Amino acid sequence: MSIADQALTEDLASRDDMIVCTGVSKWFGDFQALKGVDVTVKDREVMVVLGPSGSGKSTLIRCINRLEVHQEGSIVVDGIELTNDTRNIERIRSEVGMVFQQFNLFPHLSVIDNVTLAPVWVRKKSKVEAEQKAMELLERVGIPEQAQKYPGQLSGGQQQRVAIARSLAMEPKVMLFDEPTSALDPEMIAEVLDVMKDLARGGMTMMVVTHEMGFAREVADRLVFMESGEVVEVGTPEHFFTNPREDRTKLFLSQIL
Amino acid sequence: MSDVTMTPTSPPNGASSRTSPLQWVRVNLFSSVSNTIQTIVFTAITLGLLRALLGQVFSEEADWTSVSTNLRLLMIYNYPADQIIRIWVSAAVVLLAAGLSLGAWKVEPGYTVGRLGRHLVGLGLFCLVTRLLLPVHAPDTVRTWLIIIGVVSLVAGVVVQRADPDGDRVMGFGTVLSGVALTFLAVLWLVPFGQYGLVDGVLVAESGTTVASSTKVPWTVLLIIVVASHRVGIILGRALGRSLRAGLAAFWVVGPAFVIFVILRDPAFDWAHVWSTDIPIAAMFALGGAAVLYFVAAPGKTEVARALGAMLFAFALFNWVAAFFGWYPMLQKVRISFLIFAIVVLLVPAFAGDRSTRRRVAGGWVAAMVVFHWLLTAINTESTLVITAPPFLGGFVLTVGIAYYVMLASFPLGVLLSLARTSKLPIFRVMSTGYIEVIRGVPLITVLFFFSIMLPLFLPKGMGISDLAAVFAGYTVFSAAYMAENVRGGLQSVRRGQYEAADALGLTTVQRTSLIVLPQALRVSIPNLVGQAIAVFKETSLIAIVGGFDLLRIANSTIPNQPDFLGQKRPGLLFISLVYFVFAYSMSKSSQRLEARLKDAQAR
Fold this sequence. Notes:
heterodimer, A: alpha/beta, six-stranded mixed sheet, four-stranded antiparallel sheet, 39% helix, B: mainly alpha, 22 helices
């Protein structure tokens, strides 16, 4: 049984494949950041990727929406293979939303303009329709009153929530999170995690790179532990935290828990 | 509670942080021994320089009549006197648009009553100090007036400042404009500097006349237009908002060209030719193009647009090659229109959208084509003006006209160059780097020479280029290279995360560049870009070398060559220095305001 199929419960196994990474390798010059990574994310699954820094977890999810280019192996998102064909890349990017560690909001646009920009220009929606949807999303993430403010006037937690709303405005099938709370002050982490939990409950397929163990234990369907560019272990939260198989996993958990 | 509230608190009453003037002087000027020495030395130097300047201004040899009699020459050079109404109409059009723009964009200089008070005090002190430093032979009127203005300003300043000690009461821009206009009008109508007439070969002041006797009325009308249009601009801005601003922006791109080539030049349209050839061509491009664009701007037509655009682009380029070898005749304007159309078709997919967007794209195209063809026809038609010596533009009008259009044209060219220089494709990078480095390594004069004298030799037979166009083209090519480097600095300041976020959202490269990257890059580059614009304005004096009669040439050679004022350079040069300074300083100040305003919006 390949490492990707480990820990598949019956329920998970019956779902469609959303993201399939097979033998993905990536080099930065001579340095190999990903070594033959096999990972499968199922429909409506929340997968959390853990690991020490430099383990390749961010590189992996950045490969999925082509912010990084993988040299070996294949990545298939919702049946579309990720190749150099720009049409495939555009289709995949329209189905995959991403939330960054540094928020990356557009500072020269107001919050509502940030959220409506992509729907208007990429999905060609009308401004009125886009703004309506944007206000709904801002309410969903809890900050409708900040709509006319600029990102520079918001706190970190609010900015990250706007970033989540901005990605959701494109109605993606998959949401990727690259350490969404690592740049936040502790008192603001909870509000962002609440939004993410709400998303997970709503059935969004999520792939989250994070150090928040509480979140992982509570929300994840499966956990992936990576180190030095390899997938070391995949497991459900119960298995992972109480009885990990690999020694390297045990070492990592002892360091952070 | 995780929300950050932004209620500002004011300092406790009475505990103002403003120090008294005496305290300020003691702290800032005389706080330590070295500070005191510096203050004394630099004050002495400044007063010495001021005295030298005053010596020049009021020297016995300096004859200010050389400036006052030649004001028309300095402003408009050889423009025929009987057509001068056109100059006034042009000025009225420009000032009307300026007033509307200042109102529509809610420009507020943030001038407070307290500041006004301080400036009045400063003016008063300046006048009194100048009075003390005046050379002995300065006229008595000047002496008395300096004391009067000095004392009145000082007192008024103190009173005004008392009315607003904390500097909070902001005066609206309309008030400031009206104040400036009234002051200007008062000088125009009341100050008796006199009109000069020739009596027995000697210039004699005619008593009872004021400095602007022939231009008082037009100036008054112009000032009223500015103040009134500012008011109207504010009102219309509230009602129409975006459409007004879009319309004004469009005006500022083509309007001045209209002013120069239609109003000032008064082309004699050959109506038969216009109806048979020019209008049909314009209509074909406008309406035909609009139909194509309406079709292609629909979502999902990206492939069609790219294919069509590529074909049109190839066709347009082929036309130029054919023209060079003379294979088949085609009007210049048709060739240019095809090229522009090709480029627009290529760019349209990035801005495609629903019905209303498509209608706006098509409508915009029709308007642009109509204006473009009208302008081209006007430029290619003979002028009815009787000019004693070409070109028909000279003096201040030439300086401002060239500077304005060079700034306007070199900016987008510079942006494109810098985007090419930072692009991933090697061909763009190499070509644009070559262009920028070659142009930056060469003096402006060389470029101007090349375009006015060498370029006509390279053009195919039958294609000519007027002096004005050559100067404009050369200067634009030159300035674009510098603008490109400024914008490149701004581009490098945009964080990578912005690119990644735009990519993750699915924006195309064109959309990402125009909606996300450029707005941020340009905000950062504004100080450098405005500095470049100021340099463009001042370096227009080099046009003199290729035959243009700009402000400097008139002051430096034309006036000193007149029989009445042989060899009199200094008054003219001092005067135009003042003119250059006033404009450069206003540009610099407005750029500071622009930066502050953009920073407020981002509130980083």
